[in-house]
Amino acid sequence: MTDIRTTPEHSTGTGASVPADTHPGTADASTGRDAHASHATSWGLLPLRVVLGVTFLMHGWQKVSEWGLSGTAESFEGMGIPTPAASAVFAAVVELAGGLALILGVLTRIAGVLLALDMLGALALVHASEGFFASDGGLEYVLLLAAASLALALTGPGRFAVARALPGRGAGRILA
Fold first, then answer.
1. In Å, how far are 26, 37, 101, 110, 143 from 115, measured between CA atoms?
2. How far is CA 145 from CA 52, 87, 140, in A?
3. C or N: which end of the chain has fewer Cβ atoms within 10 Å?
4. pLDDT digits (tens, 9 = 90+) for 60-80
5. Phi and psi at residue 17, in whole multiples of 5°?
6. Which of 57, 99, 92, 53 lies closest to 71 in space, CA to CA?
7. Distance of CA 108 to the CA centre of its chain
8. What are the pLDDT digits (tens) for 44-53?
9. Each residue of 120-170: pLDDT tens digit?
10. Cβ contact 142:119 at 8 Å
């Protein structure tokens, strides 16, 4: 979107002005944000949030139900991850709860930060030394998951989130 301060403007008839490159009635006069772009962004964030959330939820579930926390800790120990028991609990809880939070669109920014940290830990401690490609155990997959998580931490969930449907303006924003 073009910067509102550097573009020719036209009046909306209400005393507010919008950038000349937007259609009258589609911009929020108080912010200059294009309502269509915001709507499209929310639609773009929805599949990102849900697919990333499902991916993390499944990996967290695998750590708890398939391998068990002790099996996950044993695996982490074999990979040289410090404090493997605590790291296993952290990874399982963050991936399960964070994945569910992303799917629902609640606490998205917090979940995004924690999931990004989880993946950056995996990248630094295990995958970076294996090269780039995931097929070789490299950083490709965890880097992508970290970047997507960070993107959601920075943007929030978008309009199509459970948190946005909660009553009260403050509660919805806090939980988003």
1. 35, 27, 11, 9, 11
2. 7, 18, 9
3. N
4. 999 999 999 999 999 999 999
5. -130, 155
6. 92
7. 6
8. 999 999 999 9
9. 999 999 999 999 999 999 999 999 999 999 999 999 999 999 988 877 665
10. yes
Q: For residue 75, give both structure tokens.
A: 């695996």
Give the model's pLDDT for residue 164.
83
What sign results for the dihedral spanned by CA atoms 60, 65, 70, 72?
Answer: negative
Torsion of CA 147, 148, 152, 154, to 10 degrees: 20
Take residue 157 and report the two structure tokens written for it: 């969930």
SS3 string of the chain? CCCCCCCCEEECCCCCEEECCCCCCCEECCCCEEHHHHHHHHHHHHHHHHHHHHHHHHHHHHHHHHCHHHHHHHHHHHCCCCCHHHHHHHHHHHHHHHHHHHHHCCCHHHHHHHHHHHHHHHHHHHHHHHCCCHHHCCCHHHHHHHHHHHHHHHHCCCCCCHHHHCCCHHHHHHHC
Half-sphere exposure of 33 (CA within 13 A, CB side): 8
